[in-house]
Design a protein that fits this description.
CATH class: Alpha Beta
CATH superfamily: P-loop containing nucleotide triphosphate hydrolases
Radius of gyration: 18 Å
Structural class: alpha/beta
Strand order of the largest sheet: 3-2-4-5-1-6
Number of strands: 6
Helix content: 25-40%
Number of helices: 8
Length: 245
């Protein structure tokens, strides 16, 4: 573990530690989108301040978000200084984050795996871990961004389907100068005890007409992971409609 203190959010960009600049200069990869919907997602991130993406597992939401965040970090260093991943940590009763051993970084490791897997694919395990260790990539539970104004960052908000209207509003209002915010959601995977507490549908509808916001939804035809996922989801839908078949 490095003894260097992470940069505070209100410090000027020029004070960012030089070792981190060296790490970022090593970010190199080629990204090939697998369909037109993924290309559209990339375009939204490039052109909008806030992007809200809804879609089933396997459509590449997290992969595209990670890839574009790394690209922006490496090509616009005077603007973007870090990637912040915000997790809506919804767990089973008795497994709250406070019961996990270690400090905040250690507590968040289990919730970071899906992102680190994608960073590993894009830039390799060693560089990904170095960026995480140096706090160029940072992961935070939702509660830890309250009251902050987050400047010079690409902020990826995961599991947005588990956020209430209040949480969605309070999260958007954390965006500061020279930042982008990307919400990733899957409306079919709401983990809340009362699904009606999810603010995702309301949020998508509310911001869809704002010029600075970009919204889109992937569907099952956009799944690029193992095709068994589409078959499985279709099967579950048939069971819900027609009973056990």
């Amino acid at each position: 573990m490095s003894g260097r203190k992470p940069r505070k959010f209100n410090e000027p960009a020029e004070s960012f530690p030089q070792p981190a600049e060296i790490l970022v200069s090593r970010i190199k990869f080629d990204l090939k989108c697998k369909n037109e919907r993924q290309k559209h997602f990339l375009k939204l991130i490039e052109t909008k301040d806030v992007v809200v993406i809804n879609g089933p597992a396997g459509t590449g939401k997290t992969f595209i978000a990670c890839a574009e965040a790394l690209k922006l970090l490496s090509t616009h260093r005077t603007i973007y200084k870090k990637i912040i991943i915000v997790k809506s940590v919804t767990v089973l009763e008795g497994e709250e984050i406070g019961f996990l051993k270690g400090g905040l970084k250690e507590k968040m490791e289990p919730f970071m795996i899906s992102f680190m897997d994608n960073f590993h694919k894009l830039i390799g395990k060693e560089l990904s871990n170095d960026l995480l260790e140096s706090d160029v990539i940072e992961v935070l539970p939702l509660a830890y961004i309250r009251g902050r104004s987050i400047d010079n960052a690409i902020i990826i908000v995961d599991e947005a389907q588990n956020m209430s209207k209040h949480h969605l509003i309070s999260t958007v209002t954390r965006i500061g100068d020279n930042s982008k915010m990307i919400f990733l959601a899957d409306e079919d995977q709401v983990d809340l005890k009362n699904r009606d507490n999810s603010g995702l549908t309301w949020f998508l509808s509310s911001v869809s007409k704002l010029e600075e916001f970009g919204t889109m939804s992937f569907n099952r035809e956009d799944i690029v992971r193992n095709p068994i996922i589409t078959k499985f989801l279709d099967h579950l839908e048939n069971i819900e409609k027609y009973g056990d078949i």
